[in-house]
Design goal:
This protein is an alpha/beta fold. It is built from 14 helices and 15 strands. Bound molecules: nicotinamide-adenine-dinucleotide.
Protein backbone atom coordinates (compact mmCIF):
# COMPACT_ATOMS: atom_id res chain seq x y z
CA UNK A 1 0.00 0.00 0.00
CA UNK A 2 1.20 3.53 -0.70
CA UNK A 3 -0.15 7.06 -0.24
CA UNK A 4 0.35 10.31 -2.12
CA UNK A 5 0.29 12.21 1.13
CA UNK A 6 0.61 11.75 4.87
CA UNK A 7 -0.56 14.60 7.10
CA UNK A 8 0.85 14.72 10.62
CA UNK A 9 -1.54 16.45 13.04
CA UNK A 10 -5.25 16.13 12.30
CA UNK A 11 -6.56 19.37 13.80
CA UNK A 12 -7.98 22.63 12.52
CA UNK A 13 -5.22 22.80 9.91
CA UNK A 14 -4.46 19.18 9.01
CA UNK A 15 -8.02 18.00 8.49
CA UNK A 16 -9.18 20.66 5.97
CA UNK A 17 -5.95 19.99 4.05
CA UNK A 18 -6.70 16.27 4.08
CA UNK A 19 -10.21 16.99 2.82
CA UNK A 20 -8.94 19.16 -0.03
CA UNK A 21 -6.34 16.55 -1.01
CA UNK A 22 -8.89 13.71 -1.08
CA UNK A 23 -11.25 15.96 -3.05
CA UNK A 24 -8.69 16.28 -5.89
CA UNK A 25 -8.08 12.53 -5.88
CA UNK A 26 -4.94 12.13 -3.76
CA UNK A 27 -4.67 9.09 -1.51
CA UNK A 28 -4.26 10.51 1.99
CA UNK A 29 -3.12 9.05 5.27
CA UNK A 30 -3.73 11.01 8.47
CA UNK A 31 -1.29 10.48 11.32
CA UNK A 32 -1.86 11.78 14.84
CA UNK A 33 -0.44 10.91 18.26
CA UNK A 34 -3.86 11.30 19.82
CA UNK A 35 -5.54 7.88 19.53
CA UNK A 36 -8.97 9.35 20.38
CA UNK A 37 -8.75 11.73 17.41
CA UNK A 38 -7.60 8.93 15.09
CA UNK A 39 -10.29 6.52 16.26
CA UNK A 40 -13.06 9.12 16.06
CA UNK A 41 -12.05 10.10 12.53
CA UNK A 42 -11.76 6.45 11.55
CA UNK A 43 -15.34 6.01 12.76
CA UNK A 44 -16.44 9.03 10.71
CA UNK A 45 -16.62 11.68 13.44
CA UNK A 46 -15.18 15.17 13.04
CA UNK A 47 -13.90 17.13 16.03
CA UNK A 48 -13.40 20.49 14.31
CA UNK A 49 -15.83 23.26 13.34
CA UNK A 50 -15.15 23.43 9.62
CA UNK A 51 -15.85 19.76 8.89
CA UNK A 52 -18.97 17.77 9.68
CA UNK A 53 -19.32 14.00 10.10
CA UNK A 54 -20.63 13.80 6.53
CA UNK A 55 -17.42 15.42 5.27
CA UNK A 56 -15.31 12.85 7.10
CA UNK A 57 -17.48 10.03 5.74
CA UNK A 58 -16.96 11.45 2.23
CA UNK A 59 -13.20 11.49 2.79
CA UNK A 60 -13.15 7.89 4.01
CA UNK A 61 -15.12 6.89 0.94
CA UNK A 62 -12.38 8.46 -1.19
CA UNK A 63 -9.71 6.40 0.62
CA UNK A 64 -8.73 8.65 3.56
CA UNK A 65 -7.19 6.53 6.34
CA UNK A 66 -5.96 7.45 9.81
CA UNK A 67 -3.29 5.92 11.99
CA UNK A 68 -1.17 6.33 15.12
CA UNK A 69 1.51 4.06 13.64
CA UNK A 70 4.53 6.13 12.55
CA UNK A 71 5.89 3.27 10.43
CA UNK A 72 3.17 4.03 7.87
CA UNK A 73 4.63 7.50 7.23
CA UNK A 74 7.22 5.86 4.97
CA UNK A 75 4.43 4.72 2.64
CA UNK A 76 3.76 8.28 1.46
CA UNK A 77 5.45 10.39 -1.22
CA UNK A 78 4.82 13.65 0.63
CA UNK A 79 4.64 14.36 4.37
CA UNK A 80 3.05 17.59 5.64
CA UNK A 81 3.46 18.52 9.31
CA UNK A 82 0.51 20.44 10.84
CA UNK A 83 1.09 20.07 14.57
CA UNK A 84 0.56 22.73 17.25
CA UNK A 85 3.22 25.28 18.18
CA UNK A 86 2.12 26.77 21.50
CA UNK A 87 4.13 29.15 23.64
CA UNK A 88 6.33 27.70 26.32
CA UNK A 89 6.53 29.03 29.89
CA UNK A 90 9.22 31.56 28.98
CA UNK A 91 7.09 32.91 26.11
CA UNK A 92 9.27 31.26 23.46
CA UNK A 93 7.80 28.79 20.99
CA UNK A 94 7.29 25.26 22.28
CA UNK A 95 8.55 23.12 19.42
CA UNK A 96 8.03 19.76 21.13
CA UNK A 97 5.21 18.69 18.76
CA UNK A 98 7.17 19.85 15.69
CA UNK A 99 10.21 17.95 16.92
CA UNK A 100 8.12 14.85 17.71
CA UNK A 101 6.50 14.87 14.27
CA UNK A 102 9.84 15.55 12.54
CA UNK A 103 11.41 12.61 14.37
CA UNK A 104 8.56 10.37 13.27
CA UNK A 105 9.10 11.45 9.65
CA UNK A 106 12.91 11.24 9.94
CA UNK A 107 12.82 7.63 11.12
CA UNK A 108 10.74 6.62 8.10
CA UNK A 109 11.97 9.05 5.47
CA UNK A 110 12.42 7.53 2.01
CA UNK A 111 14.60 8.87 -0.81
CA UNK A 112 12.62 11.20 -3.07
CA UNK A 113 10.08 12.21 -0.43
CA UNK A 114 8.88 15.79 0.00
CA UNK A 115 8.59 17.01 3.61
CA UNK A 116 6.71 20.24 4.32
CA UNK A 117 6.32 22.03 7.63
CA UNK A 118 3.11 24.07 7.88
CA UNK A 119 3.05 24.84 11.61
CA UNK A 120 3.53 28.53 12.42
CA UNK A 121 6.95 29.04 13.95
CA UNK A 122 9.93 31.39 14.16
CA UNK A 123 12.18 32.00 11.14
CA UNK A 124 14.85 29.35 10.76
CA UNK A 125 12.89 26.42 12.19
CA UNK A 126 12.74 24.48 8.91
CA UNK A 127 16.44 24.89 8.22
CA UNK A 128 17.88 24.84 11.74
CA UNK A 129 15.61 22.39 13.55
CA UNK A 130 13.66 20.23 11.07
CA UNK A 131 16.39 19.65 8.46
CA UNK A 132 19.17 18.48 10.83
CA UNK A 133 16.77 16.10 12.61
CA UNK A 134 15.51 14.60 9.34
CA UNK A 135 19.07 14.17 8.05
CA UNK A 136 20.35 12.68 11.30
CA UNK A 137 17.57 10.13 11.67
CA UNK A 138 17.37 9.10 8.00
CA UNK A 139 20.99 9.38 6.90
CA UNK A 140 19.63 11.22 3.83
CA UNK A 141 20.57 14.75 2.74
CA UNK A 142 18.00 17.51 2.18
CA UNK A 143 17.96 18.96 -1.33
CA UNK A 144 19.80 15.90 -2.65
CA UNK A 145 18.01 12.80 -1.37
CA UNK A 146 14.73 14.33 -0.28
CA UNK A 147 12.91 17.66 -0.66
CA UNK A 148 12.15 20.06 2.16
CA UNK A 149 9.91 23.15 2.28
CA UNK A 150 7.96 25.43 4.56
CA UNK A 151 4.43 26.46 3.64
CA UNK A 152 2.55 28.53 6.22
CA UNK A 153 -0.92 27.55 7.09
CA UNK A 154 -3.61 30.16 6.41
CA UNK A 155 -6.75 28.41 7.59
CA UNK A 156 -9.41 30.79 8.89
CA UNK A 157 -11.90 28.64 10.82
CA UNK A 158 -15.51 29.59 10.12
CA UNK A 159 -14.64 31.58 6.97
CA UNK A 160 -17.28 30.71 4.40
CA UNK A 161 -15.60 32.55 1.52
CA UNK A 162 -11.98 31.44 1.75
CA UNK A 163 -11.03 27.79 2.33
CA UNK A 164 -7.97 25.66 1.52
CA UNK A 165 -8.52 25.76 -2.26
CA UNK A 166 -9.00 29.46 -2.94
CA UNK A 167 -6.62 30.90 -0.33
CA UNK A 168 -3.24 31.48 -2.04
CA UNK A 169 -0.52 29.30 -0.53
CA UNK A 170 2.98 30.59 0.15
CA UNK A 171 5.78 28.06 -0.37
CA UNK A 172 9.50 28.37 0.41
CA UNK A 173 11.91 25.58 -0.52
CA UNK A 174 15.24 24.64 1.07
CA UNK A 175 16.65 24.63 -2.49
CA UNK A 176 15.05 25.81 -5.76
CA UNK A 177 14.41 22.15 -6.64
CA UNK A 178 12.67 21.66 -3.28
CA UNK A 179 10.51 24.72 -4.07
CA UNK A 180 9.68 23.28 -7.52
CA UNK A 181 8.53 20.06 -5.96
CA UNK A 182 6.51 21.77 -3.23
CA UNK A 183 4.94 24.15 -5.75
CA UNK A 184 3.95 21.23 -7.96
CA UNK A 185 2.45 19.39 -4.97
CA UNK A 186 0.35 22.31 -3.71
CA UNK A 187 -0.54 23.25 -7.28
CA UNK A 188 -2.60 20.08 -7.42
CA UNK A 189 -4.75 21.19 -4.46
CA UNK A 190 -4.69 24.97 -4.42
CA UNK A 191 -5.57 27.58 -7.05
CA UNK A 192 -2.64 29.93 -6.46
CA UNK A 193 0.82 29.02 -5.13
CA UNK A 194 3.21 31.87 -4.29
CA UNK A 195 6.94 31.14 -4.03
CA UNK A 196 9.34 32.88 -1.69
CA UNK A 197 13.13 32.98 -1.97
CA UNK A 198 13.58 30.37 0.73
CA UNK A 199 12.10 28.80 3.85
CA UNK A 200 12.93 31.78 6.11
CA UNK A 201 10.97 34.19 3.93
CA UNK A 202 7.95 31.87 3.98
CA UNK A 203 8.19 31.50 7.77
CA UNK A 204 8.47 35.26 8.23
CA UNK A 205 5.63 36.02 5.79
CA UNK A 206 3.24 34.15 8.09
CA UNK A 207 4.50 36.04 11.11
CA UNK A 208 4.18 39.36 9.29
CA UNK A 209 0.53 38.58 8.45
CA UNK A 210 -0.34 37.80 12.04
CA UNK A 211 1.74 40.61 13.50
CA UNK A 212 0.02 43.08 11.14
CA UNK A 213 -3.35 41.98 12.50
CA UNK A 214 -2.20 41.96 16.09
CA UNK A 215 -0.73 45.49 15.88
CA UNK A 216 -3.74 46.97 14.09
CA UNK A 217 -6.18 45.45 16.55
CA UNK A 218 -4.06 46.90 19.36
CA UNK A 219 -4.22 50.30 17.66
CA UNK A 220 -8.03 50.38 17.73
CA UNK A 221 -8.14 48.83 21.19
CA UNK A 222 -6.00 51.66 22.51
CA UNK A 223 -8.17 54.17 20.67
CA UNK A 224 -11.30 52.60 22.17
CA UNK A 225 -10.13 53.59 25.64
CA UNK A 226 -9.50 57.25 24.97
CA UNK A 227 -12.44 57.64 22.58
CA UNK A 228 -14.70 56.48 25.39
CA UNK A 229 -13.21 59.10 27.71
CA UNK A 230 -13.59 61.77 25.01
CA UNK A 231 -17.18 60.71 24.23
CA UNK A 232 -16.31 59.80 20.63
CA UNK A 233 -18.05 56.82 19.03
CA UNK A 234 -15.04 54.88 17.66
CA UNK A 235 -17.30 52.51 15.74
CA UNK A 236 -18.68 55.45 13.80
CA UNK A 237 -15.11 56.70 13.27
CA UNK A 238 -14.05 53.35 11.78
CA UNK A 239 -17.15 53.20 9.61
CA UNK A 240 -16.33 56.64 8.21
CA UNK A 241 -12.60 55.91 7.73
CA UNK A 242 -13.35 52.66 5.91
CA UNK A 243 -15.09 54.52 3.11
CA UNK A 244 -11.61 55.51 1.89
CA UNK A 245 -11.11 53.22 -1.07
CA UNK A 246 -7.31 52.97 -0.71
CA UNK A 247 -4.71 52.94 2.04
CA UNK A 248 -7.01 51.96 4.90
CA UNK A 249 -8.20 48.65 6.22
CA UNK A 250 -10.75 48.48 9.02
CA UNK A 251 -9.90 46.73 12.27
CA UNK A 252 -12.28 46.67 15.20
CA UNK A 253 -11.75 46.87 18.96
CA UNK A 254 -12.96 44.09 21.20
CA UNK A 255 -12.60 42.45 24.61
CA UNK A 256 -9.16 41.02 23.71
CA UNK A 257 -7.64 38.78 21.05
CA UNK A 258 -8.00 35.01 21.01
CA UNK A 259 -7.37 31.89 19.01
CA UNK A 260 -4.23 29.98 18.28
CA UNK A 261 -2.63 32.64 16.09
CA UNK A 262 -2.99 36.31 16.92
CA UNK A 263 -2.17 36.26 20.65
CA UNK A 264 0.68 33.78 20.14
CA UNK A 265 2.45 33.92 16.80
CA UNK A 266 3.83 37.49 16.91
CA UNK A 267 5.64 36.44 20.08
CA UNK A 268 7.67 33.92 18.08
CA UNK A 269 9.07 36.81 16.11
CA UNK A 270 9.74 39.12 19.04
CA UNK A 271 11.27 36.23 21.00
CA UNK A 272 13.46 35.38 18.01
CA UNK A 273 14.59 38.97 17.51
CA UNK A 274 15.36 39.39 21.19
CA UNK A 275 17.23 36.09 21.59
CA UNK A 276 19.23 36.41 18.35
CA UNK A 277 19.82 40.15 18.19
CA UNK A 278 19.39 41.26 21.79
CA UNK A 279 16.84 44.01 21.16
CA UNK A 280 13.06 44.10 21.35
CA UNK A 281 10.53 44.08 18.52
CA UNK A 282 8.72 47.00 20.07
CA UNK A 283 5.55 46.99 17.99
CA UNK A 284 4.78 43.41 18.96
CA UNK A 285 5.54 43.92 22.60
CA UNK A 286 3.38 47.04 22.80
CA UNK A 287 0.51 45.36 20.91
CA UNK A 288 0.78 42.40 23.25
CA UNK A 289 0.53 44.64 26.28
CA UNK A 290 -2.49 46.55 24.97
CA UNK A 291 -4.43 43.52 23.71
CA UNK A 292 -3.69 41.47 26.82
CA UNK A 293 -5.11 44.14 29.11
CA UNK A 294 -8.43 44.47 27.24
CA UNK A 295 -10.28 41.90 29.40
CA UNK A 296 -9.32 43.87 32.52
CA UNK A 297 -10.45 47.09 30.81
CA UNK A 298 -13.81 45.51 29.94
CA UNK A 299 -14.20 44.34 33.55
CA UNK A 300 -13.52 47.87 34.76
CA UNK A 301 -16.08 49.31 32.36
CA UNK A 302 -18.57 46.71 33.61
CA UNK A 303 -17.85 47.76 37.16
CA UNK A 304 -18.38 51.43 36.22
CA UNK A 305 -21.71 50.64 34.55
CA UNK A 306 -23.04 49.04 37.72
CA UNK A 307 -21.51 51.74 39.87
CA UNK A 308 -23.30 54.44 37.86
CA UNK A 309 -26.57 52.97 39.18
CA UNK A 310 -25.25 52.69 42.73
CA UNK A 311 -24.70 48.95 42.43
CA UNK A 312 -21.58 47.05 43.42
CA UNK A 313 -20.10 44.50 41.08
CA UNK A 314 -19.62 42.37 44.19
CA UNK A 315 -22.66 40.08 44.30
CA UNK A 316 -24.00 41.34 40.94
CA UNK A 317 -25.27 38.76 38.47
CA UNK A 318 -23.33 39.13 35.19
CA UNK A 319 -24.31 37.16 32.10
CA UNK A 320 -21.64 36.66 29.42
CA UNK A 321 -22.89 36.08 25.89
CA UNK A 322 -20.54 34.15 23.59
CA UNK A 323 -17.36 32.73 25.11
CA UNK A 324 -15.51 31.47 22.02
CA UNK A 325 -12.61 33.42 20.56
CA UNK A 326 -14.43 34.15 17.35
CA UNK A 327 -18.00 34.32 16.11
CA UNK A 328 -20.03 31.31 14.96
CA UNK A 329 -17.53 28.60 15.89
CA UNK A 330 -16.95 26.48 18.99
CA UNK A 331 -13.20 27.09 19.38
CA UNK A 332 -12.41 28.48 22.84
CA UNK A 333 -8.62 28.57 22.56
CA UNK A 334 -7.16 31.68 24.21
CA UNK A 335 -10.63 33.24 24.28
CA UNK A 336 -10.63 36.63 26.06
CA UNK A 337 -13.86 35.53 27.75
CA UNK A 338 -11.74 33.51 30.18
CA UNK A 339 -9.56 36.35 31.54
CA UNK A 340 -12.65 38.57 31.56
CA UNK A 341 -14.53 36.01 33.66
CA UNK A 342 -11.53 35.74 35.99
CA UNK A 343 -11.52 39.50 36.50
CA UNK A 344 -15.26 39.59 37.22
CA UNK A 345 -15.07 36.64 39.60
CA UNK A 346 -12.14 38.35 41.33
CA UNK A 347 -14.35 41.40 41.85
CA UNK A 348 -17.00 39.22 43.46
CA UNK A 349 -19.51 39.02 40.58
CA UNK A 350 -21.70 35.95 40.07
CA UNK A 351 -21.22 34.96 36.48
CA UNK A 352 -23.20 32.78 34.10
CA UNK A 353 -22.88 32.29 30.35
CA UNK A 354 -24.80 31.55 27.21
CA UNK A 355 -23.20 30.26 24.02
CA UNK A 356 -24.99 28.25 21.35
CA UNK A 357 -21.69 26.54 20.44
CA UNK A 358 -20.39 25.69 23.92
CA UNK A 359 -21.91 23.09 26.28
CA UNK A 360 -19.62 23.61 29.25
CA UNK A 361 -17.11 26.24 30.23
CA UNK A 362 -14.56 26.04 32.99
CA UNK A 363 -12.73 29.05 34.35
CA UNK A 364 -10.06 28.02 36.86
CA UNK A 365 -11.84 25.85 39.40
CA UNK A 366 -15.29 27.06 38.44
CA UNK A 367 -17.72 25.32 36.10
CA UNK A 368 -19.50 28.45 34.98
CA UNK A 369 -23.29 27.96 35.06
CA UNK A 370 -24.73 27.79 31.54
CA UNK A 371 -28.16 28.94 30.54
CA UNK A 372 -30.22 27.80 27.56
CA UNK A 373 -32.77 30.55 28.04
CA UNK A 374 -30.85 33.57 26.79
CA UNK A 375 -33.81 35.95 27.01
CA UNK A 376 -34.82 34.94 30.53
CA UNK A 377 -31.24 35.09 31.77
CA UNK A 378 -30.61 38.44 30.05
CA UNK A 379 -33.71 39.95 31.68
CA UNK A 380 -32.73 38.61 35.11
CA UNK A 381 -29.06 39.60 35.08
CA UNK A 382 -27.81 42.86 36.58
CA UNK A 383 -25.49 43.21 33.62
CA UNK A 384 -25.22 41.44 30.27
CA UNK A 385 -21.89 41.56 28.42
CA UNK A 386 -21.85 40.67 24.75
CA UNK A 387 -18.41 39.11 24.45
CA UNK A 388 -18.87 37.34 21.12
CA UNK A 389 -21.43 38.26 18.47
CA UNK A 390 -22.64 34.84 17.30
CA UNK A 391 -25.11 35.01 14.44
CA UNK A 392 -27.83 33.70 16.77
CA UNK A 393 -27.82 36.90 18.83
CA UNK A 394 -30.18 39.76 18.08
CA UNK A 395 -28.10 42.19 20.11
CA UNK A 396 -30.51 45.15 19.86
CA UNK A 397 -33.38 43.01 21.11
CA UNK A 398 -31.30 41.54 23.94
CA UNK A 399 -30.15 45.04 24.91
CA UNK A 400 -33.79 46.12 25.03
CA UNK A 401 -34.79 43.43 27.55
CA UNK A 402 -31.66 43.67 29.73
CA UNK A 403 -31.23 45.93 32.75
CA UNK A 404 -27.79 46.92 31.50
CA UNK A 405 -26.17 45.73 28.29
CA UNK A 406 -22.47 46.16 27.49
CA UNK A 407 -21.67 45.57 23.83
CA UNK A 408 -17.95 44.86 23.35
CA UNK A 409 -18.39 44.17 19.62
CA UNK A 410 -20.00 47.40 18.48
CA UNK A 411 -22.95 45.66 16.83
CA UNK A 412 -25.85 47.34 18.62
CA UNK A 413 -27.67 50.32 17.16
CA UNK A 414 -29.91 51.06 20.12
CA UNK A 415 -29.44 53.58 22.91
CA UNK A 416 -30.24 50.74 25.35
CA UNK A 417 -26.70 49.42 24.91
CA UNK A 418 -23.36 50.73 26.11
CA UNK A 419 -20.62 50.17 23.56
CA UNK A 420 -16.95 49.49 24.22
N1 LIG B 1 -6.26 26.80 13.81
C1 LIG B 1 -5.98 27.81 13.04
O1 LIG B 1 -6.83 28.62 12.74
C2 LIG B 1 -4.60 28.05 12.47
C3 LIG B 1 -4.47 28.98 11.46
C4 LIG B 1 -3.22 29.22 10.92
C5 LIG B 1 -2.12 28.52 11.43
N2 LIG B 1 -2.26 27.60 12.40
C6 LIG B 1 -1.05 26.86 12.83
O2 LIG B 1 -1.12 25.51 12.40
C7 LIG B 1 -0.54 24.63 13.35
C8 LIG B 1 -1.53 23.55 13.79
O3 LIG B 1 -2.63 24.16 14.45
P1 LIG B 1 -4.05 23.46 14.61
O4 LIG B 1 -4.99 24.60 14.92
O5 LIG B 1 -4.35 22.57 13.49
O6 LIG B 1 -3.80 22.59 15.93
P2 LIG B 1 -4.80 21.50 16.55
O7 LIG B 1 -4.51 21.51 18.02
O8 LIG B 1 -6.20 21.71 16.07
O9 LIG B 1 -4.34 20.11 15.94
C9 LIG B 1 -3.06 19.63 16.06
C10 LIG B 1 -3.10 18.11 16.06
O10 LIG B 1 -1.74 17.68 16.07
C11 LIG B 1 -1.64 16.54 16.89
N3 LIG B 1 -0.27 16.32 17.29
C12 LIG B 1 0.41 16.85 18.34
N4 LIG B 1 1.67 16.38 18.36
C13 LIG B 1 1.81 15.56 17.30
C14 LIG B 1 2.87 14.78 16.79
N5 LIG B 1 4.07 14.78 17.37
N6 LIG B 1 2.65 14.04 15.69
C15 LIG B 1 1.44 14.03 15.09
N7 LIG B 1 0.38 14.73 15.54
C16 LIG B 1 0.56 15.50 16.62
C17 LIG B 1 -2.60 16.80 18.02
O11 LIG B 1 -2.99 15.59 18.65
C18 LIG B 1 -3.77 17.50 17.27
O12 LIG B 1 -4.74 16.57 16.87
C19 LIG B 1 -0.06 25.54 14.48
O13 LIG B 1 1.30 25.84 14.29
C20 LIG B 1 -0.88 26.78 14.31
O14 LIG B 1 -0.22 27.92 14.80
C21 LIG B 1 -3.49 27.33 12.93
Amino acid sequence: MSFDLVILGLGYVGLPLAQQATRVGLSVLGFDVNADVVNALGAGHSHIDDLGDADVAGMIEKGFRTTTDPAQIGLARTAVICVPTPLSEGDGPDLSAVIGATEAVGRHLQPGMLVVLESTTYPGTTDDVVRPLLELLSGLVAGRDFHLAFSPERIDPGNEKFGPQNTPKVVGGFTPACADRAEAFYGRLIDTVVRTKGTREAETAKLLENTYRHVNIALVNEMARFCHELDIDLWDVIRAASTKPFGFQAFYPGPGVGGHCIPIDPNYLSHNVRSKLGYPFRFVELAQEINATMPAYVARRAQNLLNADGQAVHGAMVLLLGVTYKANIADQRESPATPLARQLIGLGAQIAFHDPYVRSWRVGELDVPRTDDVEGAAAAADLVILVQQHREYDADHLAGISKRFFDTRGVTTTADAHKL
